[in-house]
Design goal:
By secondary structure, the protein is of the alpha+beta class. The chain contains 11 helices and 12 strands. The strands form 2 sheets. A 10-stranded antiparallel beta sheet has the order 1-5-4-3-2-9-10-11-12-6, with helices on both faces. It has a two-stranded antiparallel ribbon with strand order 7-8.
Length: 313
C-alpha cells in the first residue's frame, strides 16, 4: 500500500520531537524552521498524522520513522534548460521514502518508487543502445580538468567557425593559452571542465611547468598531438569533443551512507549532448573517469543504484 504525505518545512521541525533519536541525515534534524503554530498542529491531527496527544499515528509511523532513522540516501538532480527535477530517496534498512522538495514543503511517498524517476529520465535521454563515441579514460583530477579545458576550447572553435560561416580549420592552442584557460574555468553548465571540477576536491591549479608536464602526459596517452608548439585533440578525444558541442542536460547523482555515525558519499554526473552522446563522469581524490555510454546503459546503471543499498564503506 502506498502512503503519500505533504508536509510544510515547519511541520518537519516539529515532528522531529516525536522521536528519541534522529539520524545525521534525517530531515527532522537538518530542517529547522520556526513558526509552527497550533493551527499547524491541528492540520496534522486532521490529516491523521498525529493524535491529540501529539503521538504519531500508525498510518504514518512507518514513513516518519524511516525519515527519523535514515541510514542512506540517493539524490538525483536533473537539469535541462528551464526544467529542473530534484528527487531524494531516504532509506532505513530496507524501507525507503521518496522526497520531492518545493519552496513550501516536501511531498513524501512510501514505499519509494524508483521506477518513476527512471521513466522520467527516459523521456529525455531516450533509450538507445547506441553510443556516438567510445572514449573511456581514467586520469588524475588535474589531468582530467585539463582534458576538459582542451575539449571546451575545441568546441568553442567549432562554434566560432559556424558563427562566421567559415570552413572549420582547427589551429590548436599553445601551452600558454591552455594555462590561461585552465586557470579561468567558469561556473558554466556548458563547460565540461566545470562539471569535472565539481566532482573533485577544490584547489586544482597549474603553473607553467605543471601545464607542460600535464600536456606531455596527455600526449603519452594518445589523447593529443603536438605540431609547431600547438596542441590538438586526436582520435576518440577529437570525436568526443566534436560530438559534444552543446550540453543539453545534466544529471547529478549522489549516494550517501551513514556508518558508525559518519556520512560517506559517492556520486557521478551524466551529461548529454544528443540521443547518442552521453558521458558519465565519476570522480574521487585520486582519479576521474570519463566514459561514453549509451542511454540504455545509463538507465541500467541508475536502476542498479536505486534498487540496491549503498555499500560505500
Amino acid at each position: 500500500m502506498t502512503t503519500a504525505l505533504n508536509l510544510k518545512y515547519r511541520d518537519l521541525s516539529w515532528l522531529g520531537h516525536a522521536f528519541d533519536e534522529l539520524s545525521i541525515i534525517s530531515p527532522f534534524k537538518l530542517i529547522q524552521v520556526e513558526g509552527f503554530t497550533e493551527s499547524d498542529r491541528q492540520a496534522l491531527v486532521t490529516k491523521g498524522v498525529v493524535g491529540e496527544n501529539n503521538q504519531v499515528l500508525p498510518g504514518y509511523h512507518q514513513i516518519l520513522d524511516t525519515l527519523a532513522g535514515a541510514d542512506h540516501f540517493i539524490e538525483t538532480v536533473f537539469s535541462r534548460g528551464p526544467v529542473k527535477a530534484r528527487r531524494m530517496h531516504l532509506g532505513k534498512d530496507h524501507e525507503r521514502v521518496s522526497l520531492s522538495y518545493s519552496k513550501d514543503g516536501v511531498d513524501l511517498i512510501h514505499p519509494a518508487n524508483p521506477r518513476g524517476m527512471i521513466n522520467f529520465l527516459q523521456e529525455y535521454t531516450g533509450g538507445s543502445s547506441l553510443t556516438g563515441g567510445d572514449l573511456s579514460i581514467e586520469l588524475s583530477p588535474a589531468l582530467m580538468v585539463l582534458f576538459g579545458v582542451i575539449s571546451d576550447l575545441y568546441r568553442k572553435a567549432v562554434f566560432a567557425a559556424y558563427a562566421e560561416e567559415e570552413i572549420f580549420n582547427y589551429r590548436g592552442f599553445t601551452s600558454d593559452e591552455l594555462l590561461d584557460a585552465a586557470l579561468n574555468v567558469r561556473n558554466n553548465s556548458q563547460s565540461l571542465a566545470f562539471h569535472i571540477k565539481s566532482l573533485v576536491p577544490p584547489g586544482i591549479a597549474f603553473d607553467r611547468d605543471q601545464i607542460l608536464q600535464a600536456l606531455d602526459s596527455l600526449l603519452e596517452q594518445s589523447l593529443l598531438k603536438k605540431e609547431d608548439h600547438r596542441y590538438f585533440p586526436i582520435d576518440e578525444a577529437l570525436l568526443f569533443s566534436g560530438n559534444f558541442l552543446v550540453i543539453e542536460s545534466s544529471l547529478d547523482v549522489v549516494v550517501g551512507q551513514v556508518h558508525e555515525g559518519e556520512l560517506f558519499r559517492s556520486g557521478f554526473t551524466v551529461l548529454q549532448a544528443g540521443p547518442l552522446d552521453l558521458v558519465l563522469l565519476e570522480g574521487s581524490k585520486e582519479s576521474v573517469t570519463l566514459q561514453c555510454l549509451s542511454a540504455q546503459s545509463i538507465l541500467s546503471i541508475l536502476g542498479s543504484v536505486f534498487e540496491n543499498q549503498p555499500m560505500i564503506v
